[in-house]
Design goal:
The chain is mainly alpha-helical. It has helices spanning about 1-10, 30-35.
């Protein structure tokens, strides 16, 4: 995870970004938080159970 973030930050000639978003399973949230990500919203899409 650190390698990806460092690559994006240090290779500014290749990419421009303000933030990185992740669409993850609920069980993966602690992993991303441990790696410096912050939870912006918790959206539950009921349509996915149809």
């Amino acid at each position: 995870m650190d390698m990806i973030k460092d690559f994006l930050y240090n290779e500014q000639s290749r990419s421009a970004f303000r933030f990185i978003t992740v669409d993850a399973y609920l069980s993966a949230i602690p992993f991303y938080e441990k790696n410096g990500f912050k939870l912006l919203s918790l959206v539950h899409d009921r349509r996915s159970k149809i």
